[in-house]
Amino acid sequence: TERTFSILKPDATERNLTGAVNAVIEAAGLRIVGQRRIHMSQAQAEKFYEVHKERPFFGELVEFMTRSPVVVQVLEGDNAVARYREVMGATNPANADEGTIRKLFAQSVGENTVHGSDSAENAAIEIAQFFTDADIV
Ligand code: ATP
Ligand code: MG
């Protein structure tokens, strides 16, 4: 079993879709073992997306991620990192497979409903940014 880090992004909370997204996550066999609703500060968002700081969309991304509350989550299951990437679908919803969260709910490449870690190593780093061990059960 493995853990990954997930964010239900502002476009999900704004449209009251957190339960609908969680239903897809759970139907895919992933267990939500940590979950909290937060409003990210600019500093938190800039740190979280630090790897993208030279990309042209960085400013827009930080503005979006701090626009409304998000739900940060720890997901657990077999091959959770790869499994969740599969369930999320392609970054650009126009390229996402049928049945994926981004195909079902996302509106654009920027406002794409969910984040999921891209490796087990990054999952551990990202989980530690938002959760203590006692909050994962
Ligand atoms: P995430 O890291 O959020 O799980 P991802 O790994 O599919 O998504 P990345 O390439 O890591 O995609 O990009 C991080 C995020 O930056 C994307 O989810 C999206 O919100 C935003 N983003 C990526 N490309 C663009 C773009 N061309 N224009 C606007 N925003 C973008
Ligand atoms: Mg990414």
Automatic annotation (TrEMBL):
UniProt keyword Transferase present: yes
Database matches in Gene3D superfamilies: Nucleoside diphosphate kinase-like domain
E.C. designation(s): 2.7.4.6
Domain of life: Bacteria
Keyword DNA-binding: no
Start and end residues of each Nucleoside diphosphate kinase-like domain: 1-137
Catalytic activity: a ribonucleoside 5'-diphosphate + ATP = a ribonucleoside 5'-triphosphate + ADP; a 2'-deoxyribonucleoside 5'-diphosphate + ATP = a 2'-deoxyribonucleoside 5'-triphosphate + ADP
GO molecular function, one term: nucleoside diphosphate kinase activity
Keywords for the protein's UniProt record, in alphabetical order: ATP-binding, Cytoplasm, Kinase, Magnesium, Metal-binding, Nucleotide metabolism, Nucleotide-binding, Phosphoprotein, Transferase
Catalytic residues, chain numbering: H115 (pros-phosphohistidine intermediate)
Coiled-coil residue windows: none
Cofactor: Mg(2+)
Subcellular locations according to the entry: Cytoplasm
Pfam families assigned to the protein according to its UniProt record, in alphabetical order: NDK
Chain positions recorded as ATP binding sites: K9, F57, R85, T91, R102, N112
Main location, first listed in the record: cytoplasm
Quaternary context: Homotetramer.
PANTHER family referenced in this protein's UniProt entry, alphabetically: NUCLEOSIDE DIPHOSPHATE KINASE, NUCLEOSIDE DIPHOSPHATE KINASE DDB_G0292928-RELATED
Function of the molecule: Major role in the synthesis of nucleoside triphosphates other than ATP. The ATP gamma phosphate is transferred to the NDP beta phosphate via a ping-pong mechanism, using a phosphorylated active-site intermediate.
Family the UniProt entry places it in: Belongs to the NDK family.
Annotated protein name in UniProt: Nucleoside diphosphate kinase
Gene source species: Caulobacter ginsengisoli
Gene: ndk
